[in-house]
Design brief:
This protein has five helices and no strands. With 135 residues, the protein is mostly helical. 50% of the residues lie in helices and 0% in strands. The protein has helices at 3-23, 39-52, 54-57, 82-91, 111-128. 24% of the residues are buried.
Length: 135
């Protein structure tokens, strides 16, 4: 298997794992659509988020002039599942939903790093709720 094919297979396995974990996760609290996230992952994800995502998506996840709020209802798990975050980090993302332009890939993050960032984002979505779309 080529290095590229091996990397793609690894990414697909991690995405599948994230999807299965989301489906088999802890029961949600009454009235919230997202289960509580693993505290260790959330803590690690906060540092990674602040270092790699906050410049565009805001230190409070509410967006900046460079990128949208990750608390928007657009990013709820049924519309943008956890694997969509990994795909955006690995491959980038074309402009859609917003007029910020395309998101470039984020180099240097492992699938495990992205899983921690997603846990941080999901925990804030769970606690803070969603903002309406369009803003």
């Amino acid at each position: 298997m080529t290095s590229r094919a091996s990397r793609q297979a690894s990414v697909h396995l991690v995405v599948l794992g994230l999807v299965l974990a989301a489906c088999a996760g802890a029961p949600t609290e009454p009235g919230t659509p997202i289960p509580p996230q693993d505290a260790g992952l959330v803590e690690a994800g906060e540092d990674l988020y602040l270092a790699n995502c906050a410049s565009c998506h805001g230190s409070d996840l509410r967006g900046t002039g460079l990128g949208p709020s990750l608390l928007s209802i657009v990013y709820e798990p049924n519309h943008h599942p956890d694997g969509a975050f990994l795909a955006a980090v690995v491959r980038g993302s074309p402009a859609h939903h917003w007029n910020f332009g395309p998101m470039e890939p984020v180099p240097g993050l492992t699938p495990e790093d992205v899983a921690a960032i997603v846990a941080f984002v999901r925990e804030h979505q769970r606690l803070d709720g969603y903002e309406p779309y369009p803003p």
